[in-house]
């Protein structure tokens, strides 16, 4: 079943919520709904997730955002330009799993 515009807005709101638990829940919803997103919705979410991850102060949330972005990237609905903000992350401050997500995103660009 396709994701409605209202559901998409609610999901974007969750990804930008002040509460880190809500942001992590929204990331889980993205991965749960992968097959329901249209190409437009996937691109919009990818840009939101990339921007969120690039500015995320909570390491656990950042990992969830990068994971959701990687899963969403596997849909093939968008290219590297949609996750450009994560290129600004300082890799020296990232956990090994986060570095792996970034490496996987770079591979998609090749």
How would you describe this structure to a colleague?
The protein has 110 residues and is an all-alpha fold. The protein has 5 helices and no strands. The protein has helices spanning 5-15, 20-32, 39-55, 59-73, 96-108. It is globular, with a radius of gyration of 13 Å.
Short description:
This protein is mainly α.
CATH topology: Leucine-rich Repeat Variant
> What is the mean pLDDT?
93
Largest sheet: none
The top level CATH class name: Mainly Alpha
Instruction: Determine the number of helices (DSSP H or I, runs of at least 4 residues).
Output: 5
Q: Give the terminus-to-terminus CA distance.
A: 32 Å
SSE pattern: HHHHH
Radius of gyration: 13 Å
Number of domains: 1
Name the quaternary structure. Answer: single chain
Low-confidence stretches: none
Can you give keywords for this protein?
single chain, mainly alpha, globular, 110 residues, Leucine-rich Repeat Variant
């Amino acid at each position: 079943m396709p994701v409605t515009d209202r559901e998409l807005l609610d999901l974007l709101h969750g990804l930008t919520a002040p509460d880190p638990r809500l942001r992590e829940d929204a990331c889980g919803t993205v991965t749960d709904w992968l097959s329901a997103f249209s190409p437009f919705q996937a691109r919009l979410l990818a840009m939101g997730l990339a921007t969120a991850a690039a500015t995320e102060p909570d390491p656990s949330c950042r990992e969830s955002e990068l994971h959701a972005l990687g899963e969403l990237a596997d849909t093939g609905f968008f290219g590297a330009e949609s996750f450009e903000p994560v290129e600004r992350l300082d890799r020296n401050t990232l956990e090994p799993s986060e570095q792996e997500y970034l490496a996987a995103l770079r591979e998609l660009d090749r």
